[in-house]
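step: validate -> pass
step: tokenize input -> pass
step: predict -> running
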Amino acid sequence: MTLPDPFDVRTAAVSAVGLIGGYTAARVTGKRPLGGLVLAAAGGLAARTWIARDGAGPAAALTAGYIAAFGLSHPLAKAIGAWPAVLTVTAAHAAAAHVVSDAYRR
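step: predict -> pass
step: emit ->
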């Protein structure tokens, strides 16, 4: 199996799939490690793309933002509910990925 060309990957969508898909996988199956696997796989593909396309600095910032979004969704969920929290952090990170990386590739 070959990975897609980094210049063809829309990382905003990939990070959204990782955050929403990871939460969905964990919730539906009751297996948190499965959700973590989805989260990590999407994050890895996005990070690979950011490194190849944008360099180490932007890649590090976007990867840190992805991890922070996952982490912040937990306390936010206590305040506004699980799905609203996941959707909020996903929208924020997807917007950042689009502005920092994807918008320059179209």
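step: describe -> DSSP finds four helices and no strands in the chain.
step: cleanup -> pass
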